[in-house]
Amino acid sequence: MTTSAHAAGQAATSPLVAPLVVRTVAIDTRVADRLLDLVPDERPVTWLRRGEGLVGWGVAAEIRTTGAARFSDAATWWSEVTARAVVRNEVEEPGTGLVGFGTFAFADSPGDSVLVVPSVVVGRRGDLAWMTTTSATGLDRLDEQLRVADAPQPPTGVAFADGALDGERWMTAVADAVARIDAGDLEKVVLARDLLATADAPVDVRWPLHRLVESYPMCWTFHVDGIFGATPEMLVRRERGLVTSRVLAGTIRRTGDDERDLALAATLARSSKDLEEHEYAVRSVAEALEPHCSSMNVPETPFVLHLPNVMHLATDVAGVVHDATTVSSLQLAEALHPSAAVGGTPTAAATALISEIEGMDRGRYAGPVGWMDASGDGEWGIALRSGVVDGATVRLFAGCGIVAGSQPEAELAEAQAKFVPVRDAVSGV
């Protein structure tokens, strides 16, 4: 039995059928050595990095929200769910007990958002592994066992086509954005484009998840309600009073030649265009977190993050939160969204320009995606390097930060590089 609220504004008024009954127990870490191998094709959710994280399946409760109140509606509903839940937690670590997974639309409209409590969650952190079962039946003891799923089959006959805009039209939009920036309308805007992949049969999302986990272990591989990917960008992590955010802005494509890539990394670290773009993103994150922190550490210079396909300028912003009892990780994610890394600067001008010239509906691309436990601790990434599965079709997304001096051809090449992780993952080879 599941409980759900399906419209914005219902979160505070929709009664739950019954309190959720939650039990977390420690399990042998060998069971969780390959977390994805445990997941059946039953509304799977994932949040994995370097062999650790959370996977789950089934639905014990969920809310779907839309509009400007999508975050607050979900937060209100979550407060009600956690207040009514009966929890037996033998592990008492972040990510244990009652856990919800969420994915939120980039814009107020259009797009829907989801916060879901899986029926089963399996987690791994270091030498600790656990299983959480959740039910709305009111039973005190749950006997659902871990099920080893059949191996997913690779997609076949995959063909790719341009989405809303082809390369030429998208470069025209980039040139328009640069002209607006030169005119002083704004400082930075992030423009995205989409790519459509069509297979011969419905795509089993577990296949690209396996590929992404293997190829991009330094990223957070995620899946919630159809959107999946391997994001390198942590919007916000809150754990026991500490908050961190990894900011990425400024990108260069790798060549595969280690010596050449080191030279390119040095070029990236000195690039005035990329450093300017990065500064906007770091500043927007620091300003959003400051009201919630008693102290903060904002490094003066970024480091270069090396990924298999690209390199990014990166900064880890950290702080000590003073309002952890009243502000959850989801609410911190709302405060941070959209950062300059996915929207632009100033935010209002940038998001308005995105709506005007980007030419597509982002849906949940570049919105917060992640998980939260009953204490409000959690991890929310930005849904980048991502795709949305809809039967035999996968819609891929990639975006680039546009500032003064951006060259349309270079930005198109950067977008193509950012498609690579999901494009390879759904190719089926």
Automatic annotation (TrEMBL):
Signal peptide: none
Gene3D superfamilies: Anthranilate synthase
Pfam family, one: Chorismate_bind
Transmembrane segments: none
EC number(s) from the headed UniProt entry: 5.4.4.2
GO MF annotations, alphabetized: isochorismate synthase activity
Domain Chorismate-utilising enzyme C-terminal positions: 168-418
Name by which UniProt lists this protein: isochorismate synthase
Taxon lineage: unclassified sequences, metagenomes, ecological metagenomes
